[in-house]
Amino acid sequence: MNKKELTETDNPGDLRQSVLKLAAQGKLVPQQKTDGCAADSIVAIASLRDMKSSAKSVKKLRDIDESRTATSLPTSWTWCRLGDIVMEFRYGTSRKCERVAKGTPVLRIPNIQDGLIDADDLKYTAMPKGEFEELKLAPGDLLLVRSNGSEDLVGRNAVARLAIAPRPARPRILAFTFGPDGILDAAG
Question: How, if at all, do strands 116-117 and 167-168 pair?
């Protein structure tokens, strides 16, 4: 990591962008030999996904042309598409929700704040146990606001850190489930 890249800025937003850029390039922290190879992880995730959803057919996407990418990666990394590392993604429930604390707690867009889940202002709905089991979050699930009337809210995200977390209330929030370990290690 080049300290000059991180310190030559007067704008905190520029510093944040510099840190994100270095992290995406694998230059923020030294790469360890024990980190393993990303390609092996992608193959393992694909195998697990195939076992879990043998009835579903998965569309094969075109390979990424690395000559057209903006940066080179550490040797243990590889370019991939989000679909390569996600076990599944799903929308939340569209059931009507109420502020009365009765039933299953659900998340809404306002509950996703600064990369965290804020459970202070939940709404609740009646939900059959089977539907709850299908929709509940697991530790390491990534929540992503996919649409809203405000551009400032689109892309807002958080990582579920609870064993039994409430589930997104509206289809405007996507939940991504990664491999068995989720993305908790990457998220901190």
Answer: unpaired
Task: Identify which of 22-26, 33-37, 88-92, 93-97 has the greatest average pLDDT.
Answer: 93-97
Cα 90–chain centre separation: 12
Q: Are 9 and 18 in contact (CB under 8 A)?
A: yes
Across 160-171, b (16+ Cβ under 10 Å) vs e yields bbeeebbbbbbe
How far is CA 147 from each of CA 49, 102, 123, 143, 160, rounded to the nearest angstrom? 26, 27, 19, 12, 19
Give the predicted TM-score (pTM) of the model. 0.71
pLDDT by residue (tens digit) across 7-22?
A: 555 566 678 778 878 8
Are the C-beta atoms of 152 and 134 separated by less than 8 Å? no
Structure tokens belonging to residue 148 = 């809203």
